[in-house]
Amino acid sequence: MELREIKDSEIGKVKELRDYAFRVPASGGEADFNYWAENARRLGLFYGEHLLAQVLTYPLNVSILGESFSMGGIAYVASYPEYRNAGLIRRLMEESLVRMKEAGQLVSYLSPFSIPFYRKFGYEVFTEKIEVEILSNALPDMGTVPGRVMRFSSEDGTGISVVRELYNRFALTKKSGMMMRDDAWWLRLARRGYTKEIAVYCDMNGVTMGYMLFTLDSEVFKVHEMVALDYEAERGLWRFVGTHGMMVDRVVAKNVGSLRDIALAFPSPDFQKREILDFMMRIVDVEAFLGKYRFERTENTLYLQVEDETAPWNDGIFEVRGSFVKRLEQTSEPVLAISIQALGQMLMGFVRPRDLVYYGKATASEVTIATWEKAVPHVRSDFYDAF
């Protein structure tokens, strides 16, 4: 059995395994799949010329505290059923992490078929999503707004340029963990029909402050994502949705914020809501990640003891003073002892240091916990994309 990169001429074998394992067509069509397969790092385990298992890694970027981090997006992890439980995927995942580190990809994301399975490789949930379903006769009255909504579509270059600028501002300033979308990624969204209809909210001065990507599917108004820089824009966009109440039976919306956002935004949030944990992440290179991460200004030096069974280069003690990071053989200073999974959750903003200690995901003294609480910014992680 040989572990090696899958050649361009062997992408057909990747498709065959994809089709056999997932049983559903690629949602963006074959042209989209081909583009990403050609641009991915493709690792496979072969017996002779036969592909037995595969892992693809997309070269992507995400925003963490306003900084762009290179990210390896894991996709199409699969093996033929007769080779499952033989350790093939473990070998491929471990080698993928080595290749990501060599390529400078500091973090990695994936969409799990099983959360416990990928926890074994150091990944952990870092964002929670909700999907809401509102019957048209239950759409709330969001009141009046001083601005107005303008319509665009993916066929209008102006519309895409407007929403790109708004998305970038949102991703860099309002959230942590969001995709930094380039031209290829916007084309991917267009292939999936997400940008077919665009509503942009402009305030009373004509400044664009929010947008919504949506489609009308039979008698369902589908909101694919909503980005608002202030509450006025959010109300204006929901009001726009409400104007379609006589045309549709219900509204189904995703990527519109958290459950708390919905509770705060709607005067009467009494409608169906489904919470989803659908993406996981891990830090690939702890030392490099800590050196780039924007800790809050503090006079305290931080000491961290990381446990990482899958990527041994991360296993050890780190001293952090601002952007200066040093690996230590040992220390007598009080440390925050933490797994690679919990470290990713904490620094992405999904959970606070004190909560991790409470749930036994980390250990530290009360003084050390207080120090880390001051040092880790209060951010909210989210991710509106998929692969």
UniProtKB/TrEMBL annotation:
The organism's place on the tree of life at top rank: Bacteria
Limits of the N-acetyltransferase domain: 1-146
InterPro entries, alphabetized: Acetyltransf_17, Acetyltransferase_Eis, Acyl_CoA_acyltransferase, Eis_dom, GNAT_dom, SCP2_sterol-bd_dom_sf
PANTHER family, alphabetized: N-ACETYLTRANSFERASE EIS (PTHR37817:SF1)
Protein's name according to its UniProt entry: N-acetyltransferase domain-containing protein
Organism: Listeria newyorkensis
